[in-house]
Amino acid sequence: MRDAGNGGRPRDLSYGLPFVDEYHVAVAADAAEVWRTLTGWAGQQGGGPREAYARLVGARPTAASGPALETGSTLPGMRVVESVPGCRAVLAGRHLYSRYALELGLEPAPGGSGTVLRAATYAAFPGPLGFVYRQLVIGSGVHGKLMRRLLAHLRDRAEGSPGVPVPPVSGHVSKDR
User: Fold this and answer.
1) Is-contact 72 82, C-beta < 8 A?
2) 139 in helix, strand or coil?
3) Is the pTM of this model over 0.85?
4) Which of 54, 125, 122, 130 is nearest to 91 (CA)?
5) CB of 21 within 8 A of CB of 172?
6) Would you call 148 helix, strand, or coil by DSSP?
7) Half-sphere exposure of residue 152, counting CA atoms within 13 Å on the CB side?
8) pLDDT tens, position by position, 113-158
9) Interhelix angle for 31-42 vs 142-158, to 10°?
């Protein structure tokens, strides 16, 4: 990602964590609508199974707090460490088996019609239990499946067509490829 305030040089949003993968999808909506959709999704992440899972794996933070996607607010297992409305949000967290960051980025779609929504994951999995956890989550394909599902859901919501069957997500980049 390039930052005009940084002389157009690429920004490092990894927070010192190794790159895992990136998924992206074209959305037939402007960046403002995609951002509204992202904040709506983030605002629904508290409670229930998400908080139970966060407690189970010893995540910090364990609960949602604050306005959705504002710097300093939290979701179970993640804190918003950077937020530029209409452009990007970086969420970071940790638990017993991993330290991780998720960058959600919005960019103009090629040709200027619509928005590309990106989700880049960075993570470290220290120690033997971290290795096992990585194999269960990343190596099994569960993480990728969940990211593709999330992006498709967000695209459908932003386009105003929830529940419509979706084609495969338009792109994926992985360190393991």
Assistant:
1) no
2) helix
3) no
4) 122
5) yes
6) helix
7) 15
8) 899 999 999 999 999 999 999 999 999 999 999 999 999 999 999 9
9) 120
